[in-house]
Amino acid sequence: MSNFKNNPLSNGKRIGKFETIPFKEIKFEHYEPAFNHALEEAKKDIKEIREDKNEPTFENTIEALENSGELLNYVSKVYFNLLGAESDDKMKDLAQKISPLISAFSNSIMTDSIIFKRVKTIHDSRKKLDLDQEQIRLLEKNYKDFVRNGALLDDKEKEELKKIDGQMAKLSPQFTKNLLGATNAFQLVITDETELEGLPQSAKDAAKYAAKQMKKEGWLFNLQAPSVRPIFKYAKNRDLREKMYRAFTSRAFNDKFDNRKILKEVANLRYKRAKLLGFKTHAEYTLTERMAENSKNVHEFLKRIFTVAMPKAKEELNEIQSLAKELDGIDDLQAWDFSFYSEKLRQKKFKFDEEELRPYFKAENVIDGIFEVANKMYGLNFKPITDIQVYNEDVRTYEVIDEKNDHVGLLYIDLYPRETKRSGAWMTTFQTQGMLHDKMKRPHVAVVANLTPATDKSPALLQFSEVRTIFHEFGHALHALLSNCHYRTLASPNVYWDFVELPSQIMENWLMEEKALKIFAKHYQTGEDLPLELIKKVKKAENFNKGSANIRQLKFGMLDMAWHDTDPRDIDDVVEFEENTLDKLNLLPQVDTSLLSTAFAHIFAGGYSAGYYSYKWAEVLEADAFEKFKEEGIFNQKTARSFKENILSKGNSEHPMKLYVNFKGQEPDPDALLRRDGLLK
Question: Residue 35, CB half-sphere, CA atoms under 13 Å: how many?
Fold first, then answer.
């Protein structure tokens, strides 16, 4: 027992007035015993519910389930968040042991006939109960979760389901580990500066600094986004572009980190699971709990975008090919040429280079700016705090306060790459908003990214696309921070996957507005505002190559559906399957060393299986919703209040379409996105 007292995870320790996680006290050796202890505690909670001799009620069953496993939830939040943001090989290997244990426990609850009988009794009599809207929603969700996770199966089928879930729990962490290993394994050191012709000075400085940190001479490039993007976009050296492109697009493919076997197993297990539960495919299983509702609607949605975007994308490609021929005599345009000549064409058409913007986007200024945007819209203030523990010295922390000076939540911001962090950008929660044992908890939210870091010559100056990433993830953070639900299970951002991107993607629109840019886009040395002329150029170039951009997103969405809306047992060769799936979407020749699936963590290691279409689906919602902001003013507090009260604060307390209609007054126009992108007149 003394071990538990000394283990900050096993005793669920929180510190200070905000009850934060004591990150500095947590050691690797704490995790496994903490999980084992937390699982035992959670099992006791469940045993108490199933052995309750009283008649099942909403309080002694549904709310009891909601409050169960508090310690397990705490330990899981810490471990899995740090697994993505601050982990080493030992942490990743531990996931192979931890994930199956949690899966087995969850499975044991969902297939427990006694617990399900109690839930079903309440569900069957729900019309006679005096429940409010959120209680009804929680009850319905609980009932559906049990059914969708095997409660109606016989004992033999339940055992089979348990076995499937246990296998899947091991595979996703291994997929992530392989991808991170492949990403970190590649380094390219260049000692001749002439090979870097065309690269912005900022990119060269970053590469020089990276080499210096590794005690190497020259310029060091890796497969993190801030390192590869400038090469694709600006490097005149075609061989260098090809080398980096082939390395980046072959991660975890045909090397010691190869993910092909794993992803096939994942797809097969998901299909097997869906069939066991009475669904035709994993996609059909998933989409019954989405706004899209079924596979047919998703396919038609993606096909509509394809029909409009592909002709435009081909026109854009022809322009790029012509310019490559004109400038460098290139007849055989390849995938590693597209971004380079696309940027050349942008500069020619709109007379500006995105690198001109970088000095106006110092990372700290961007963060301050988005805080000001949130203040103007929602009356929020972000107070820097330095007396709470963080998991890495790069992390900055803020207390979020509303206009009444009431505590809203905590925000952790972690912006820069490191070897212990997986690639990409995301928002996560260390504590979800909602009631826990009669005490309302406010959220602890984190924004994690891999943006261009500072060097020994300049502060962190961001690309325009990186600023967009901050706005996007901050939109997710606002969703979590402004949640105002009673039950944590229903609190934001625990909403349908094709609705969850609405709060994030709508925030990107403010980046294109002069009134918002004026707040924070200031030169890092002179303090001068981003020139109006540059703002106009940015806006004029807003729909540049939008046909191609839509096709790129369709590749992800259609590949996802191809894996999950079929019988994957028929797929023998992953390369052949992917080539056949994407053939009609390829604007340029397929690269023989490239494979998208092996690095597609969103669907094979994240929550987006049969759901990557959600990004485009949510773009329709946000394009339609932002029209209201444009009409009424981007900082109109009445409009912002309506968005907050009807969307951000409501979580999953009602069906998302009802929430959307409450805000907009009508259902979204399906063509709003295509109009916004200039693909429809």
Answer: 19
Q: Among 265, 399, 473, 508, which one carries the catalytic annotation?
A: 473
Contact indicator for 580, 635 with CB cutoff of 8 Å = no
In this structure, which CATH number among 3.40.718.10, 1.10.3720.10, 3.40.50.2300, 1.10.1370.40 belongs to the domain 359-540+615-676? 1.10.1370.40
Strand-pair partners of 447: 413, 427
Q: Which residue has the tokens 């932002």?
A: 626
Alpha helices by DSSP H, listed for 421-570, are 464-481, 502-507, 514-520, 532-540, 546-564
Class (C level, CATH) for 260-352+546-612: mainly alpha
Give the pair of three-digit tokens for residue 193.
């500066």
Domain ranges of the chain: 2-180, 186-248, 260-352+546-612, 359-540+615-676
Is residue 217 part of the annotated active site? The answer reads: no
Which positions ≥6 away from 587 have C-beta within 8 Å? 313, 314, 317, 338, 548, 551
Cα four-point dihedral sign 310, 227, 200, 589: negative
Whole-angstrom distance, CA of residue 71 vs CA of residue 68: 9
Look up the CATH architecture of domain 2-180: Orthogonal Bundle (1.10)
- Closest to 464 measured CA to CA, from 353, 312, 320, 373: 353
Can you state the percent helix, strand and coil of the chain, rounding each to 5?
60, 5, 35
User: How many of the other CB atoms lie within 10 Å of CB of 154?
Assistant: 9
8-state DSSP, 454: P
Distances, alpha carbon 56 to alpha carbons 70, 124, 194, in Å: 21, 12, 75
Distances 98 to 33, 34, 169, 296 between C-alpha atoms, Å: 11, 11, 9, 37
Tens-place pLDDT, residues 98-146:
999 999 999 999 999 999 999 999 999 999 999 999 999 999 999 999 9
Residue pair 49/64 in contact (Cβ under 8 Å)? The answer is yes
pLDDT digits (tens, 9 = 90+) for 471-521: 999 999 999 999 999 999 999 999 999 999 999 999 999 999 999 999 999
Output the six-digit token pair for 479.
């969703």
Spatial CB neighbours of 218, under 8 Å, sequence gap ≥ 6: 189, 190, 191, 192, 208, 211
Distances (CA, A) of 418 to 84, 208, 257, 412, 421: 11, 16, 19, 17, 6
> From CA 427, how far away is CA 444, in angstroms rounded?
11
Whole-prediction pTM value? 0.91
